[in-house]
Amino acid sequence: MADEPELKTSTKQKVMNPLVLAWGFVLIGLSLTVAWVMFSEEPVQNDANKDQPVTINEDLPQTTITIPDVNVPNSAPKSINDMAIPAEEPSVNEMTKDILATQMPLKAAPNQNLLIEGQNGLKPTLGPDGLIAWKEYARPYEGPEDKPRIAILVTDIGLNSKSSTMAIENLPGQVNLAFSPYGRNLQDWMNKAREKGHEGFLMLPTEPLNYPDSDLGPHTLITDLNERENLSRLDWIISRVGGYVGVVNHMGSKFTASEEALTPIINDLKDRGLMFVDARSTRFSMAARLARRASMPRAINDRYIDNVMTAEEIQKQLGELEKTANTFGAALGIARALPLTINEIATWSMSLEEKGIDLVPVTAIANRQPIK
Questions:
Q1: By CB neighbour count within 10 A (0-12 exposed, 13-18 middle, 19+ buried), where does 265 fall?
Q2: Residue 95 binned pLDDT confidence (cut-offs 50, 70, 90)
Q3: 62 inside domain
């Protein structure tokens, strides 16, 4: 029995040895893991070198990418190896850019020296020192004398907000706009139009042959009314807005054919320094002849551009205007403020330069057309 403790000791050693080995393996594994993590980390870059440029190929010259300050409009372009990198900016349609370039602001209007109080408010009058409305409010034009000219007059501005805005914003500045006397906030519309370079005309409601089936409102000029009544109606019309260069008759196939009814109107408008556009709603119109007789600046409609509302027909009528301009030196077309018409005129206008034709304001063709 004396050997029993040693037996117990010997038995204990046999049991403990595997545990020691297991713990040894665990410790070795942990040590290897720590060592792997330490030696696999990327070296920390020295602060003294962290701002140095990184070159991919030492044989190529080092270049620096210069990024301009976005608040400086004329910053130098970014470059890599002398190749320019275009700046990030929204894509702009070339046609839109060309049209925007034509929309130079005109001088503020109306000029108070060209207004007088009437029975319905302020209306145009001759100014001091030879100041005349149709010249004061005109868009400047200094093109060559011998180059064919085409003017476009778009009507019904002020009646519909969407179409009026589209005409003002999307048409070249040379295109004239005619304002309805029945529109709202006409002075605001006139100011917006002039800010985009458009001359303004005022539409003159005049009696058509099928009146009263076609009734242009309570201020329409009527052949059966006496001179005083028509002049009173005219006073209301021309007091609606200020800053326009002249008037254009709206309809009027009966009224403009009556020399007796039309003469007092022409004389009154001429004495106010205004221009007259004969819309030629009838081939019997006397308007251009009476304006010439009164020594009043005038222009004559050659084509109604959008009587047939298709793109093909509108382009056909614009092509006919080109022929007229090439033959007689000047031509005028009238159209309505409708989306299709506006888009077609804008597109067509971009083709005129290569055709050797100038798109001009109406005042630039004053007295240049033959009276047919």
A1: buried
A2: confident
A3: no
Pick the range with the lowest mean pLDDT from 88-92, 180-184, 217-221, 326-330.
88-92
| 245 within 8 A of 137, measured Cβ to Cβ | yes
| Phi-psi label, residue 81: left if phi above 0, alpha if psi -120 to 50, beta otherwise | left
> The domain spanning residue 130 has which CATH number?
3.20.20.370
Please indicate whether residue 353 or residue 36 has the higher confidence score (pLDDT).
353
Supply the pLDDT for residue 19. 53
**How much is the pLDDT for 33?**
56
Residue 80 forms part of a structural domain? no
Look at the chain and report how many structural domains it folds into.
1
Structural domain including 338 reads 118-365
For the segment 276-296, what is each residue's pLDDT rounded down to a tens digit? 999 999 999 999 999 999 999
Residue 13 lies in a domain: no
Examine residue 95 and state whether it is found in any structural domain, yes or no: no
